[in-house]
Amino acid sequence: MRQLGWDGVVFEVPDNWELARYHYAFSGVVRLVIEDEYAVRMEAEWLEARKEGQAQRFTEHTTQSLAALIKKADSQVVLDGLPSAWRAVHCHFSEIIPVRRRDRTLGVVAHDLVTAIYAPRDTFRCVIRLHFMPGDKEPPVELARRVLTSFAWNATPGEKKLWQVFDLSYRIDASFQLESTTFGIGSKLLVFRRDGRRLYLWTLSCADRLPVNEPGGSEWVIGYLNGLRRVTGIVFRPDGAGGIGWKRRGLLALVHRDELARWCFRYTVDYRVLEERNQLMIRVFNYRHEADLDWLAPASFGPAAE
Fold first, then answer.
1. Phi, psi of 78 (to 5 degrees)
2. In a 10 Å sphere around its CB, with 0-12 CB exposed, 13-18 middle and 19+ buried, how is residue 271 labelled?
């Protein structure tokens, strides 16, 4: 089992399950889809209600939706021994489907579904669906209990939220909101936003093959950032003290329209090699005032376990 963390929600899943998709709805609902090598294995939706009655409406809508699904099952068993505020049902389905089209042979395919709702007395709600198909090795009830027992939600204002998927792991101040992600082979980028400021966090694998630990190693990072052109209107360059500076591109010597819209005209750039993880981490922060740099706590630039 391994731990996944997303925007303050943490739970354990089998080692071969990983984030496949995420979605932030206008209603405030966050949705994650977790897959293994073959299919969707888990769906999680949660809501931190900010309006009166919003949590109750989410619970009622979710309960009705799950009830319609549970009703179609051949058997249903309510799980006991769960953590407080969790309600879960184990459903077993036996469906008849074509197995050979040529001679129109039918067969029975058995699969399982565990649905769970987290409805404490506060304003946070969550619903989880766990899917089990023929050939899956995980026992449905045992795994469901493991996932629900490991579930945690960071609701403390001012605390840092855990972001832990694939091979990256950060704890970011809760005031930073996720704006976008780019997940590629060997390179993963999370972009956060806070009151117009923008924080870029790259995690690059195979850092032991990069010359960043050698004298002048910052030149590789500079070349990487300039090649990406992910930070609009900016060219990175050596700052003369072994670090990384910046300047605006040619005709944009005054200001870029994106900077003007957010009223943020300053940048700080640094990087870090994590030898124990064989990773290179790069951080670019586009900010407004010098005091904004206090938001960059060390915990936001290193493994969450530190």
1. -75, 130
2. buried
